[in-house]
């Protein structure tokens, strides 16, 4: 396992928390408030990529002034208030314009005829670092439409190449070239998809820009998986993971950066492991999860350890090792206990329930399900990990459906699967397809072939947008169950379309 050498004890400039903005959030979780921000943006025709981490950065004072898109959204959400009322600093004090004015008319840009955009200290440091990841990030940090404004690095906005909210580019890439093309379009701007020549070049010690690029890669991979599934993404996502561990080998400039790199590399290993898991590469997934777990143990990161054990439990269940699934889920719960997130403990109880179901232990499964439901009802909190944004009522219902299906209680399974598909946010196309595929299989085994075929056809319609071996395998199993019922309404059409897609 790579380790990071800390070469400087200089602290990063402390940020002043934005208490006014925190007060406006009230009792909502950062993820819930981020959803309100995205909704408000759509109301006025803006597109922002707001998530729980962005809200956290604002409240921590890391983003002292939002870009213009976020400014319009925030002022729309809180009419009659100014940016100052929302706890932000003036734009001139943050973007460097005042400093350039004070420096006089003979600054660097003017001396070259104004052809060069203003270069911030952070961007200059990035440019002077030789690692290809940093060079690419520096090029992407300049907005061609607003080159005189120093945007916060990796702060999403409507023109920034890192903005992935409803990206037309990614949508077109998926429709024309499949998951691999999407991955290339999404990850290349981050500078993490380094080629062989770049990988051979010895990297410089990493700093804040590299840590931010790594964290953004994790978010982007998760977003692509939520929308399109894992197939085609896995091979592309392996390159950022290699780059991440190369950065750990090179060392970091500060301890805080080293911690971020280790956490980011661990989360990236889990994300890549999940892509392998969802596309049927169980051995690869097991290796990536073990890598993440080793990183967590090495750095004492309880949150990362809980996440790694969580995914290990899920993989063990799918790989037919239910007892290991139970043990891994219980280990995850021990790691997560001090973190204070009831939602995380709820998900881990569901992972344990899946293991008990695989062992045909109905009592153990029911007890874990009851615990998961009780923990879920405690609601969201600030302690919920960012990666758990997918875990809502729909996922709770979907995982419970899988437990009852494993136990052979098809009626209960189909009831929960139907609720899961109905409750799922339309944004998560892959999950809608997954829950509907679960519903189709449960209905088929329950003896309702016409309804099963109808659900299966809905899944097939979604496969133009989703690529997932897991879902394809589930549909193949449903087709085998429905073969004797070919004369039932809709079954022949489903069987023919499913066979044509697999051909």
TrEMBL record:
Residues 97-127 are annotated as: Disordered. Residues 97-109 have a biased composition (Low complexity). Residues 118-127 have a biased composition (Basic and acidic residues). InterPro entries: TPR-like_helical_dom_sf. This is Tetratricopeptide repeat protein. It comes from Streptomyces tricolor. The lineage of its organism: Bacteria, Bacillati, Actinomycetota, Actinomycetes, Kitasatosporales.
């Amino acid at each position: 396992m790579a380790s990071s050498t800390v070469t400087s004890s200089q602290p990063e400039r402390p940020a002043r928390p934005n208490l006014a903005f925190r007060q406006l959030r009230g009792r909502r979780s950062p993820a819930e408030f981020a959803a309100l921000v995205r909704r408000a943006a759509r109301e006025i025709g803006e597109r922002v990529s707001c998530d729980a981490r962005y809200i956290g950065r604002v409240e921590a004072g890391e983003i002292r002034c939002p870009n213009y898109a976020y400014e319009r959204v925030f002022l729309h959400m809180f009419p009659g208030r100014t940016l100052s009322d929302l706890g932000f600093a003036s734009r001139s004090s943050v973007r460097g314009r005042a400093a350039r004015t004070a420096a006089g008319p003979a600054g660097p840009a003017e001396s070259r005829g104004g052809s060069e955009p203003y270069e911030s200290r952070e961007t200059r440091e990035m440019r002077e670092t030789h690692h290809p990841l940093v060079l690419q990030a520096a090029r992407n940090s300049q907005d061609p439409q607003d080159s005189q404004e120093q945007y916060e690095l990796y702060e999403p906005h409507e023109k920034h190449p890192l903005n992935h909210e409803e990206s037309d580019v990614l949508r077109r890439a998926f429709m024309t070239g499949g998951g691999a093309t999407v991955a290339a379009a999404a990850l290349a701007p981050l500078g993490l998809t380094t080629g062989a020549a770049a990988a051979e070049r010895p990297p410089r010690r990493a700093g804040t820009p590299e840590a931010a690029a790594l964290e953004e890669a994790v978010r982007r991979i998760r977003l692509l998986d939520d929308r399109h599934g894992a197939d085609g993404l896995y091979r592309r996502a392996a390159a950022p993971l290699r780059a991440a561990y190369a950065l750990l080998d090179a060392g970091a400039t500060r301890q805080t950066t080293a911690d971020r790199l280790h956490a980011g590399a661990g989360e990236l290993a889990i994300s890549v492991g999940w892509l392998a898991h969802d596309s049927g590469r169980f051995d690869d997934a097991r290796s990536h999860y073990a890598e993440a777990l080793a990183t967590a143990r090495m750095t004492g990161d309880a949150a990362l350890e809980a996440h790694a054990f969580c995914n290990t439990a899920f993989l063990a269940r799918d790989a037919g090792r239910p007892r290991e699934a139970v043990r891994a889920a219980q280990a995850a719960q021990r790691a997560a206990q001090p973190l204070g997130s009831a939602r995380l403990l709820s998900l881990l109880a569901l992972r344990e329930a899946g293991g008990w179901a695989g062992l045909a232990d109905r009592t153990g499964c029911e007890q874990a399900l009851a615990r998961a439901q009780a923990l879920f009802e405690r609601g969201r909190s600030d302690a919920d990990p960012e990666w758990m944004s997918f875990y809502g009522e729909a996922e709770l219902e979907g995982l419970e459906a899988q437990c009852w299906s494993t136990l052979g209680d098809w009626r209960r399974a189909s009831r929960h699967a139907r609720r899961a598909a109905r409750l799922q946010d339309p944004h998560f196309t892959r999950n809608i397809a997954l829950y509907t595929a679960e519903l189709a299989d449960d209905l088929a085994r329950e003896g309702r072939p016409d309804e099963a075929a109808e659900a299966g056809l809905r899944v097939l319609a979604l496969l133009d947008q989703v690529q997932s071996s897991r879902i394809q395998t589930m549909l193949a199993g449903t087709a085998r169950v429905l073969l004797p019922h070919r004369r039932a309404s809709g079954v022949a059409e489903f069987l023919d379309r499913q066979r044509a897609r697999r051909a």
